[in-house]
Structures are given as structure tokens and as C-alpha cells.
């Protein structure tokens, strides 16, 4: 059975493999399709698509929008028009707001004698800088043993150098993806640690604003959890998706296509997703 992986991060955000490298690895694994779903950017989609055309691997344009709903919730978007003006304006604002937060973090570290050159980080990592990049620099400077250790000691919420950042409302995240011709999907529902009633409330709230899918297979979910989510998606009429949340060396325990070893996302799930994206109701 052909498989796919629709939740992947590249070096365009906080992964370590370039978009082209992701697609080459997918080809070597005989995956039928992958989606580059970088955090709040579509900068890697064109490169992935070009490599996919060479290798016969479908590279779905995607994004993962960090959203506000009382807590942080992630909304995935698939088959986006990456040149959509509304999407471009939205992502530009996210990057601008994040850039301001990052510079403040760098200044706070510098005040304590931690030499982090933020402009150098941007030159090295690109415009979509996040806390994992700070973590990598802290590891390189010998101030942390791993990126996770850097989070735990320096940049996680509650630690000295953590600063919150501006993010889209969850309503706007769903709407922007729809306005860009894409299919909005609720990412990894169990990661929010909600009771069933609260999870249903979240799903229904997002559906009121255009949610069309839910991630039902995920690296950290066993088969019982996946079956529960599949039943929930069927009940609400949402298309199921799935993916590894691969980040390359930044999350070495998660493998492309297979997650922690048990992930299996059938290629048959791609057609309903594609059909939603190409239907006339998806085109504003």
C-alpha cells in the first residue's frame, strides 16, 4: 500500500533538511506524496514542488499556522495558492511580529553575556526564525546539551528568555487558508490535552469558520487514538489527514513517513483532500 506524509517541516522553518532533501528522502522511501507544512511560511513549497516533478513524488503545498484559541492551536493548510495576496500579507505580518520578538530575545541574552547575533542568525537560517534556531545556537555555544535542553533551561514558557509572540486568531487562520484556496485541517488534536467536550467545542468552532479536515494519524498516536479521531472526523464530515511532524535532526526520534515506527498514512487519503481544494466552493 502506497503511503504519504502530510506533516513535514523543512529548513524553511524549524526543520534541518532543505525542501528538496525532504522530497528526495520521500522518493527513496517510495512515498507517493509529501506536504511541506512549515510554520507560518510557504517559502519551501516551490523548491519541493520542483524536486517532486523530477522524482515523481507529489509535493503538496502546505503551511502550519500557529493560532490563538485560549491556548496555542495549530491549523494545517493544504493545496494553497502560495501567491495568494491575502496569504502573503498574513505571513508577512507574522514574520514581522516574530522578528520583533526575536530581536528582543537576542537583546535579553546579550545583556546577560550570551553572544547571539540575530542578523547573523537570519543570514544563516532565513527569515522564518523561531525558538528552535535559538536553541541550536545555544547548543553550538556549549550552553545546552540539545535543542530540547535549551528550551527547558532558557526559552520555554516560564524560563528567563521566553517571550510570547503575536499570533493569528484560530478563526482567522482557518479563513486565510480558505481564502488562499486551501483546505484547513486541525493538527494533532490530542496534543492540546482537551477533554472530549472541549475538543468537540474546538472542532465545531473551527468548522463554523470553514475547517474541512482533521489530522487523525500522527507520530505520537497509537491505533486506538487514531481510530477515535477517524470516527470523530467521520461524525463531523471532516477529511482525515496524517503525518509524521518530521523536523530532521531537530526531532531525531521522528522519521519521515513512519514517525516513531508505527505511522501509516494511506495514499488514498490524498484524493478527498485534493478534491476539496479543486472544488468550486473552495475558490473565493
Folded structure, characterized:
With 284 residues, this protein is α/β, with parallel strands linked by helices. It has helices spanning 19-28, 45-55, 85-111, 118-125, 131-140, 147-155, 170-179, 196-208, 223-236, 270-278; strands at residues 4-8, 33-36, 58-68, 72-78, 168-169, 183-186, 213-218, 239-243. The model is unreliable at 280-284 (pLDDT under 50). Strands 1, 2, 3, 4, 5, 6, 7 and 8 form an eight-stranded mixed beta sheet that branches.
Between the first and last Cα atoms, what is the distance in angstroms?
35 Å
Residues in helices, as a percent range: 40-55%
Order of helices and strands: EHEHEEHHHHEHEHEHEH
> Largest sheet, if any?
8 strands, mixed
Q: Which structural class best describes the helix and strand composition?
A: alpha/beta
Shape annotation: globular
**Beta fraction:** 15-25%
Q: What Rg, in angstroms, do the CA atoms define?
A: 18 Å
Number of strands: 8
Q: Could you report the average pLDDT, rounded to the nearest whole number? A: 94
The helix tally amounts to 10
- Low-pLDDT windows of residues: 280-284
List keywords for this structure.
about 280 residues, alpha/beta, 10 helices, 8 strands, globular, disordered C terminus
Summed up, what is this model?
With 284 residues, this protein is α/β, with parallel strands linked by helices.
SSE arrangement:
Layout (H helix, E strand, L loop, with lengths): L3 E5 L10 H10 L4 E4 L8 H11 L2 E11 L3 E7 L6 H27 L6 H8 L5 H10 L6 H9 L12 E2 H10 L3 E4 L9 H13 L4 E6 L4 H14 L2 E5 L26 H9 L6
Parallel strand pairs: 1-2, 2-3, 3-5, 6-7, 7-8
Antiparallel strand pairs: 3-4, 4-6
Helix pairs in contact: 1-2, 5-6
Amino acid at each position: 500500500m502506497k503511503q504519504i506524509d502530510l506533516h513535514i517541516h523543512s529548513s524553511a522553518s524549524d526543520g534541518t533538511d532543505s525542501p528538496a532533501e525532504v522530497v528526495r528522502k520521500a522518493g527513496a522511501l517510495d512515498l507517493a506524496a509529501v506536504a511541506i507544512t512549515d510554520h507560518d511560511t510557504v517559502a519551501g513549497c516551490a523548491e519541493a514542488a520542483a524536486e517532486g516533478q523530477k522524482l515523481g513524488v507529489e509535493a503538496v503545498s502546505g503551511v502550519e499556522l500557529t493560532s490563538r484559541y485560549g491556548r496555542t492551536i495549530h491549523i494545517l493548510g493544504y493545496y494553497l495558492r502560495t501567491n495568494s495576496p491575502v496569504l502573503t500579507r498574513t505571513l508577512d505580518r507574522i514574520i514581522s511580529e516574530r522578528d520583533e520578538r526575536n530581536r528582543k530575545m537576542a537583546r535579553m541574552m546579550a545583556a546577560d553575556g550570551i553572544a547571539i547575533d540575530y542578523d547573523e542568525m537570519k543570514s544563516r537560517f532565513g527569515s522564518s526564525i523561531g525558538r528552535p534556531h535559538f536553541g541550536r545556537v545555544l547548543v553550538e555555544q556549549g550552553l545546552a546539551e540539545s535543542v530540547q535542553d535549551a528550551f527547558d533551561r532558557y526559552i520555554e514558557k516560564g524560563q528567563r528568555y521566553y517571550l510570547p509572540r503575536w499570533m493569528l486568531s484560530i478563526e482567522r487562520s482557518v479563513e486565510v487558508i480558505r481564502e488562499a484556496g486551501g483546505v484547513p485541517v486541525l493538527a494533532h488534536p490530542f496534543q492540546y490535552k482537551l477533554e472530549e467536550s472541549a475538543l468537540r467545542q474546538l472542532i465545531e468552532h473551527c468548522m463554523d469558520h470553514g475547517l474541512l479536515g482533521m489530522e487523525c494519524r500522527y507520530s505520537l498516536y497509537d491505533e486506538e487514538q487514531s481510530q477515535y479521531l477517524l470516527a470523530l472526523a467521520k461524525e463531523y464530515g471532516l477529511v482525515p489527514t496524517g503525518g509524521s511532524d518530521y523536523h530532521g535532526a531537530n526531532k531525531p526520534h521522528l522519521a519521515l513517513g513512519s514517525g516513531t515506527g508505527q505511522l501509516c498514512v494511506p495514499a488514498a487519503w490524498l484524493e478527498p483532500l485534493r478534491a476539496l481544494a479543486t472544488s468550486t466552493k473552495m475558490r473565493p
